[in-house]
């Protein structure tokens, strides 16, 4: 993305955006209505909605500003794509996941779930920001959201996985969908870096604002869809201590592996949130803070080492370019979180019910994670091919 778009994009992008928005308005007019709510429930849920909204708009928006060339457009396009994604996700979720016969009914919880789905698309964009044109980003968001909601529908229909649980696979799906699409769009000139991919002190500062916002609101993010007070309180406490332990480990390891013994802001930006990602699925299950701290600490160490040692290897050997480091912020921590979740389910589920046809089975949960990961890789590859048109566009 740049300040001056190619002539073809100046026409096709606004046209496609307007057509997409008008189509969504038509779908809402025909199928969507508001659900009756109670005052007490709304008052409880609205603060959570505010926190999740801050994560999507402010947190992830400022996180993209570290690129010196794309800071302004990254922040603005995050808002544009998030606004479009929430609307599309609301319709898709209502059409595929809701069981009501009288049409799609919107509640505050359904909007929160739509925003969580939108986060998966924003994560995917992080892998390809600067490589795609605006129209390609729009297409990719629409495809990614559709594939992710279909994945949740499949898990609900065939494995009896609650959508409130499967939506928390967003880190895995978003990261590997974006990485696979990035692999399709790879150019040989990216293996040695590019001057436009660099950052400035001021752009790093603004990016850290995004990291801090995400750090502050991540406990609300992980507990947004939980029903009981016990689950919500556990999720908030465990997420907070996982983030705290993760942050300490990231600062320590970053200094340790730096050739001058300095703190690398790229490591801090990418890795300090990995603890919150890793604890996401299992946060309501953990009843001791030290377990959450171990998970966060481990995620922080692995994420930091991945940024330092794995990034260049993937670019040169596997031709996998990851602009924002979504593999280390979301992908690897998501895998760690999936493993921890399955182990906890195995330890806490009744022995006779460790089978695939039981909803609470660890095998059931493990298969769901494998299905989501596989779906993200396959659909990301297909989406990458779909958006890889020969358009005039600006690339890094």
Automatic annotation (TrEMBL):
Protein localization: Membrane
SUPFAM superfamilies, sorted: Ammonium transporter (SSF111352)
Pfam families per the UniProt record, alphabetical: Ammonium_transp (PF00909)
Keyword Transmembrane helix attributed: yes
Keywords in alphabetical order: Membrane, Transmembrane, Transmembrane helix
Residues passing through the membrane, by range: 12-32, 44-67, 74-91, 111-130, 167-186, 198-218, 238-256, 268-286, 292-314, 326-347, 367-391
Signal peptide boundaries: none
Topology with respect to the bilayer: Multi-pass membrane protein
Keyword check for Repeat: no
Main location: membrane
InterPro entries: Ammonium/urea_transptr, NH4_transpt_AmtB-like_dom, RhesusRHD
Family (UniProt): Belongs to the ammonium transporter (TC 2.A.49) family. Rh subfamily.
PANTHER family (UniProt xref): AMMONIUM TRANSPORTER, BLOOD GROUP RH(CE) POLYPEPTIDE-RELATED
Name of protein: Rh blood group, D antigen
């Amino acid at each position: 993305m740049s300040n001056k778009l190619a002539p073809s994009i100046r026409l096709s992008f606004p046209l496609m955006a307007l057509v997409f928005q008008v189509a969504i308005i038509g779908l809402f007019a025909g199928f969507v209505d508001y659900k009756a709510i109670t005052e007490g429930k709304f008052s409880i849920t609205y603060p959570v909605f505010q926190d999740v909204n801050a994560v999507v708009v402010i947190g992830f928006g400022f996180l993209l500003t570290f690129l010196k060339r794309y800071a302004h457009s990254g922040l603005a396009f995050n808002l544009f794509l998030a606004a479009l994604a929430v609307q599309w996700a609301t319709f898709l979720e209502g059409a595929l996941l809701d069981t009501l016969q009288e049409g799609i009914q919107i509640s505050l919880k359904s909007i929160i779930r739509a925003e969580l789905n939108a986060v998966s698309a924003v994560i995917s964009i992080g892998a390809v920001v600067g490589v795609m044109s605006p129209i390609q980003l729009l297409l990719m968001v629409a495809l990614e959201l559709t594939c992710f909601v279909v994945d949740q529908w499949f898990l609900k229909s065939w494995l009896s996985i609650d959508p409130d649980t499967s939506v928390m696979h967003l880190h895995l799906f978003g990261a590997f969908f974006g990485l696979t699409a990035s692999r399709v769009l790879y150019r040989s000139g990216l293996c040695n870096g590019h001057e436009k991919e660099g950052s400035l002190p001021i752009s790093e500062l603004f990016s850290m604002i995004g990291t801090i916002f995400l750090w502050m609101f991540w406990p609300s993010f992980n507990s947004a869809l939980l029903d009981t007070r016990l689950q919500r309180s556990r999720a908030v406490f465990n997420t907070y201590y996982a983030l705290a332990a993760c942050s300490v480990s990231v600062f320590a390891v970053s200094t340790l592996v730096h050739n001058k013994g300095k703190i690398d802001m790229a490591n801090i930006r990418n890795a300090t949130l990995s603890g919150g990602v890793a604890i996401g699925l299992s946060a309501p299950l953990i009843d001791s803070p030290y377990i959450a701290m171990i998970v966060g600490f481990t995620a922080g160490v692995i994420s930091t080492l991945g940024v330092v040692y794995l990034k260049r290897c993937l670019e040169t050997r596997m031709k996998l370019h990851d602009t924002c480091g979504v593999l280390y912020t979301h992908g690897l921590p998501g895998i760690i979180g999936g493993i921890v979740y399955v182990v906890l389910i195995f330890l806490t589920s009744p022995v006779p019910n460790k089978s695939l046809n039981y909803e609470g089975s660890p095998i059931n949960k493990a298969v769901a994670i494998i299905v989501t990961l596989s779906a993200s890789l396959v659909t990301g590859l297909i989406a990458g091919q779909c958006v890889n048109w020969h358009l005039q566009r600006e690339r890094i």
